[in-house]
Structure formats: structure tokens, C-alpha cells
Amino acid sequence: MTFAAILFDLFDTLVLFDRSRLPEVQINGTTVRSTAGHLLPILAPHAPGVDLPRFFDALLWSWQEAERLRAADYREIRASERFGLLFSRLGVDPARIPAAVLESLLDTHARCLCQAAEFPPDHRDLVRTLSRRYRLGIVSNFDYAPTAQWILDREGVTDFFQAVVVSADVGWRKPKPAIFEAALSGMGIGPREALFVGDRADIDVLGAKAVGMAAAWVNPNGEPIPPGIPAPDYELTSLGELRRILTREGSER
């Protein structure tokens, strides 16, 4: 196969998430990693009587509830909607939260997550090398698009990508065709011209193959392909193997 473009999943493919980099907070005598300690002071004037343990529980519940809703039909539950769930869980009317407060909560939460996201140097080198030969893009399931952009800007790799498509902007998550199609359309390419690289067989491989793209599955633990999921065109033990795969196929010069 010869490709004109390589599209990547972002989190757990290009970017690795390290929870140990999240802020520490004490909840009932136990140290946990969470953004709750940074978020509660912002919301506190609008949620009287809410202490940190209750806020932490509601924040965790809001994430679990958003995940449950997403799993039903792959519609994205944007970060603003998730915080609406949080407010309701705390008995606070979401409509009474000023827009500036919501924006501060979203921004603070996202910047804490950015601190826990690592773009390994070898991944940066790979992207730089591939950009000389291929058009590059990103297709990411994430509920707040600025987070992805801040990470790429911080790492100095933004200019390597012709398209960065995040589910929060599209409204649908992988494996729905819409998010892949948005990236392909934005790059002006057809599905058979592109290879998609991701770490999830159930969303990355399935979604890419469904729209006619070739797929490379980053599968470091050698897990079996889940039932009902089409086999990837390539299986990698690490992202770095992509260079070898492309060379073997005669795509990289």
C-alpha cells in the first residue's frame, strides 16, 4: 500500500497520559490524583455548603455518567455538558452558573490534564520525519478541543498536522464515520489514500476500516482482536514500528 496521508489517534497513541502528574488532593485522609482541589474554589461561591469530598464524588460521578451516555450511541458529551451533570449532582441549577465561571472551570480542568499528558521525544521525532513525506492529521475522542490544541502547541508539533479533528467539535466520537470523514474532507483526501494509527481496536480500527481506510493497531501487549472487529492491516508493538512498516511497504523514501 502507498499512502498520501497518515492520521493518528491522539491520547494513548501520540500522547501518553500519566495520572501521577495530576494534582494531589486529600479526600477523607486519602491522597488521590484529581483536579477537584483546583476546581472547587472556583465553584464554591455558587455552591454553598459543598465540601471537597462531596465535590470529588460528584466530579467522578459526572465522568462516569458521561462515559455511560457516550457508550450508548457514541454521541460526544462535551465538557460543558459534563459540568452541567456535575452541577445537577450537587443540587446546583446549571442555568445559574455564570458563563465566566463555567469557562474558568473548563480551562482549569483542561490545563491540569495537559500537565499529565506527555508527548514522548521519539514520537515527536517520528512525526517530524513522517511530515516530510506524508500529510498528517489527528482524529481524537475528547470532550474539550482546546486541550488537544494546547498540548500540540506546547510540544511544538502543531504545524506538522494539516487537520486536527476532535469529537467535541464534530459531536460524534470514533468509531462513528462522521469524525473520520471530517478529517478526510478537511485534508482533501479519500479514505484509500490514508492510513489510520490508533491504540483501540474497537474504535480506531473499527472506525477506520468502516470508512475504507487502512488501519494500524498499536497493541503493545499483544491482545487478541475483539470479536466482531475487522483485523487491522498492520499490528504494531509500539508507535515507533510505524516507520519500519512504512519502509517495508515501500511507502517511505
Describe this structure in words.
There is one protein chain. Helix 6 (145-155) links the parallel strand 6 (135-140) and strand 7. With 253 residues, this protein is of the alpha/beta class. Strands 7-6-1-8-9-10 form a 6-stranded parallel beta sheet, sandwiched between helices. The chain has helices spanning 36-43, 52-73, 79-89, 99-115, 121-131, 145-155, 167-170, 177-187, 201-210, 241-248; strands spanning 5-8, 16-17, 24-27, 30-33, 117-118, 135-140, 163-166, 194-198, 214-218, 234-236. The chain is elongated, with a radius of gyration of 20 Å. It folds into 2 domains: 5-16 and 118-248, 3-Layer(aba) Sandwich (Rossmann fold), CATH 3.40.50.1000; 19-115, no CATH class. Helix 1 packs antiparallel against helix 4 (99-115). The longest helix is centred in the first third of the chain and has 22 residues, at 52-73.
Summarize this entry quickly.
It is built from 10 helices and 10 strands. α2 (52-73) crosses α3. The longest helix is centred in the N-terminal third of the chain and has 22 residues, at 52-73.
List the helices and strands and how they pair.
Elements: E1 5-8, E2 16-17, E3 24-27, E4 30-33, H1 36-43, H2 52-73, H3 79-89, H4 99-115, E5 117-118, H5 121-131, E6 135-140, H6 145-155, E7 163-166, H7 167-170, H8 177-187, E8 194-198, H9 201-210, E9 214-218, E10 234-236, H10 241-248
Parallel strand pairs: 1-6, 1-8, 6-7, 8-9, 9-10
Antiparallel strand pairs: 2-5, 3-4
Helical coverage, percent range: 40-55%
Largest sheet at a glance?
6 strands, parallel
Uncertain segments are none
Beta-strand content estimate: 15-25%
CATH superfamily of the largest domain: HAD superfamily/HAD-like
Rounded mean pLDDT score: 96
Tell the overall outline.
elongated
**Strand numbers in spatial order across the main sheet:** 7-6-1-8-9-10
Total beta-strand segments = 10
Helix/strand/pairing class, anyone?
alpha/beta
Q: What's the tally of helices? A: 10
CATH architecture of the largest domain: 3-Layer(aba) Sandwich
CATH class of the largest domain: Alpha Beta
- What is the rounded Rg? 20 Å
Oligomer: single chain
SSE topology string: EEEEHHHHEHEHEHHEHEEH
Give the count of structural domains: 2
